[in-house]
Fold this protein.
Amino acid sequence: MDRLAILGGDPVRKEPYPAWPVFDERDVAAVAAVLTSGRWGGFPYPGPQTATFTRRFGELQGAEHVVAAANGTVTMEIACRAAGIGWGDEVIVPAFTFQATAAAPMAAGAIPVLVDIDPQTYCIAPQAVEAAITGRTRAIIPVHLGAQMADMDAIMEIAERHDLIVIEDCAHAHGSRWRGRGAGAFGHFGSFSLQSSKILTSGEGGVLICRDETLKARAISIMDCGRPHDAQGTLYTMGANYRMAELQAALANVGLERFPEQLQQRQEAAAYMDEALSELPGIRVLKRELRHTTRSFYRYIFAMDPAVYGFTHEVLCDALEKEGIPAELGYPPMHRYDLFQPRLSRLPVPSAFPEFFDYDHLHLPEAERAGQREAVWLDECIFRAGRQGVDDVVKAIQKVYDQRSLLVETGQTGR
Ligand SMILES: Cc1ncc(COP(=O)(O)O)c(C=O)c1O
């Protein structure tokens, strides 16, 4: 048996996985055309590249009212503010997500209320949402995490019953569909990131799908320094500059040309991965939800069983990295996340609920299990490397499993 690479042996995969982002002469030409046009920025909104991009992105997700912005954090802040959410309002967010999902409503003045996830999907648990609703709750931000979608049937039913705004955080879900309907087209808003690691990228960038013309006009106004963008030209808001630049929109337009083929490629490889991983001991594949009709793959997340391996996901990820497999721990649970420091804000924490920002006493078992012990995030690039790309991952996990006792004995797990 080949010795583990982390113990000095040869790695399973010696060839790097395909780089991201990809580009070719089309991107160079698109950027050059914007440069020579002299219209580089996002003012006045929308420029020609931005107008084309929002129309085409709307076609991808099946949405009519689309706004392009600076990134996928401000899009959620804009959504909160366009919906009239502000000081002291509560917004329910899952505890297993990137910092931005909780920080964006805070930037609008709202208090994020962290709730637990469904262990089958690692997305927000509808029953936890229901249990967290108070008289101050104004919105829910479900996150479509990795390659999964939150249960949008259950979330929308709860939201409608309690008259709540829904902002879908689709930073990972470009191209995803639930019962044939695009991610971001269920809630009042759908927020996407085009940051450089995302599966559609312009370096930095964000997209906000709005449910109707009025929300869209408010959102554009907020992101365009408060200028009116409604049909009458009378709707001013308290705004700032959160516009996307034309240079970014040009890159996003070329990215959209490549997107369908990449989506297909990742889907095929990921279906093959589902099968292969299900055979491995101590590995749990997340739920393959049939209502999730088109899956896109930003990260493929699976769960490992620390009781079977004798160590947690950290050691498995380290060992896989050494085998040439891009595997990450993903996010810690939000209430244990170094990047998330709500106490440094000056938000009023309702005196009746000081525990909102006192996370020492907050226990969300599923988010903690996933974020601190079990979840392994595989990079999207694996799924652009054909079956061999997947076979190498499976071989590497099997190799770590076979030599797990050696890892324990040699003290490689002593964290
Ligand atoms: C789940 C999630 N939400 C929001 C964001 C914020 O997007 P951006 O980096 O474009 O601000 C990201 C990623 O960066 C993310 O992963």
The pocket of pyridoxal-5'-phosphate is lined by residues 71-73, 97-98, 100-101, 143, 169, 171-172, 193, 195, 206 (CB under 6 Å).
